[in-house]
Amino acid sequence: MPSREFGLPIGVTGVRAVKEGTDYPIDASHIHSRAGSGGTVPVLMLNTGDRYSGEILEAQWRKGWDANISIFTASISGGTLNLTGVAAVAGTAGNGWINNVNPIVMVDAAEYTVSLESPVDDTGAAADRDIRISHFIKQDKDELSPDSDDNFVEIRVDVDESGLILQLYKEVNGVNTLLDSGYNYTMDGSRGTGNLEATIWRVVFNGKPGTAGATMSVYLKQAAT
Q1: Are 18 and 33 in contact (CB under 8 A)?
Q2: pLDDT at 53 exceeding the cut of 90
Q3: Which domains can be identified in the chain, with CATH numbers?
Q4: Does pLDDT of 42 surpass 50?
Q5: How far apart are CA 113 and CA 154, in angstroms?
Q6: Which of 12, 27, 63, 122 has the most other CB atoms within 10 Å of its CB?
Q7: Distance CA 167, CA 188 (A)
Q8: Residues 180, 16: Cα–Cα separation, whole Å
Q9: pLDDT-derived band of residue 190, with 50, 70 and 90 as boundaries?
Q10: Distance CA 1, CA 47 (A)
Q11: Rounded CA gap, 207 and 210, in Å?
């Protein structure tokens, strides 16, 4: 699997990535330790991608769900991660999630690609059968719902009886902002139907994230399942 493990010199307490003279500090909480013949060896685990080979999720993934979900499963089939859930009470929304606890180093010009796919782009005439699929690029390493983080970027696919809408959000220090939305490339704020279920998003970081002048570009490819 594409996650990478880096053994560091004994005694190292601080780690940073460097690209073209720019430092990208890595939080110490991401450094683990392992007993070695010469002492305790610091180990850094980085998430460099995941293509979901095999049948079992790697250990860096943490699964959770709330009280409104009675069954929540995460399985791998044909290189695709499948998430399925059953609401505890019909018509009451529930949330299930998996978090990757290994960090991604967001250096200048880094590209990040994620594919999201809903089984349908219209849940039918009956209400209260909504589907929401979200991918978060978030700050904290934990096993909690990503919604509970105060700083994140969210890419969302939302489907109800009126059709599908794609939404891009950011949350900074607890303030949530809708950046754009729509059912296709036009991003006109409306829902729609018609071979829209599968999406591929490419996120490009321009400049050092968190510094003045840094931006994020988002590209979309869309088709039927």
Answers
A1: no
A2: no
A3: 1-46 (no CATH), 50-102 (no CATH), 106-225 (2.60.120)
A4: yes
A5: 13
A6: 122
A7: 11
A8: 33
A9: very high
A10: 10
A11: 9
DSSP tag of 192: B
pLDDT value, residue 2: 58
- Inform me whether the pLDDT recorded for 58 exceeds 80: no
Pairwise CA distance, residues 7 & 44, whole Å: 7
Please state, rounded to an integer, the average pLDDT across all residues of the chain. 86
- The whole-angstrom separation of Cα 89 and Cα 55 is 30
Record the pTM. 0.85
DSSP result, 197-215:
-EEEEEEEEESSTTSTT-E
Q: Can you tell me which residue has the tokens 């088709």?
A: 223
Which pLDDT does position 100 carry in this prediction? 84
* Cα 89 from Cα 7, distance rounded (Å): 48
Distance (Å, whole) CA 75 – CA 98: 11
Of 204 and 47, the one with more pLDDT: 204
Encoding tokens for residue 87?
Answer: 């609401």
d(CA 106, CA 125): 43
Place of tokens 């979900």: 69
